[in-house]
Amino acid sequence: MRRAFGTAAASAQSLSAGLCASLTAGWVSLVCMGVCSACFSAPTPLAPGLAGSVGMPHHGVQTESVELPSAGAGFVRYRPKGQNHWGRPRLVSALERAASAVDSELPGGAPLVVGDLGAKAGGKIPGHNSHRSGRDVDLLFYVTTPAGAPLRNPGFLHFEADALAVEPETGDYLRLDLPRQWLLIQKLVTDPELGVQFVFVSRPLEALLIDYARARGEPLELLYRAQTVMLQPADSLPHDDHLHVRIACSPEETQTGCSGGGPYWEWLPDPPPSVPLTPELLEAIASDEPLDPAESPSLAGSTPEGGGA
Question: What domains can be seen in the chain, in order of their start residue?
Fold first, then answer.
């Protein structure tokens, strides 16, 4: 069902800890600053191998991010002038594709309202514990009036198990637009470039969506994927007011510092094979030891040439 997923950021942390324990004080400062800072703040020239989505969603950063436009075919940003709409390029492009597909296949509806992604360089943003490494986005629900007329979602409204929510300023009821909401989820979980890891949503709303999809006769494989990735989080609010979509690290991103932070589903692309540690490779690594005693002066008891007593 699930494959173990390597964590490059955790490996870097472990490596730095081992180095720091064995080197002198001067080397400790240099190595720890270069390795650890790349994992837990902005990547630096001292760690050129870390780039893109670095670390985990709740403890990471990002480079080479792309900003979601303030509006496009089938979508608008909830905060048009907000600063936190930066994410991985494949996430931004997939959102644009999915919103456009919903708008074209079910015309006449209101646009998808997109909440926060992340900061341009990642890290913590207000109101979120995750959204730090470019792999998260909040999506407000598609809504209609109780009679079925599409409306733009005015905010983070809390929907009950009957698919209804109350707009607090007017007291009007709004209904979850199940056809458009299900179509959006379908487009996201089947996008070959995206790689959805989780869709955080409350259990009652997940049940409504899955029941709707079953009634439509959707393929079992699609139902399995959707039901697998949809989850009510245990460590935060139930997400009855929006979807929180998180994508998995791509196979390429795992080589440059991305840490999964969860399962890696069997339908996602296979991670690249590990390089076998052959005797020749181990010998090559050993021969490139930067602290080779043969090339370094002794740290204790040495005197300069010709400098006897």
Answer: 61-265 (3.30.1380.10)
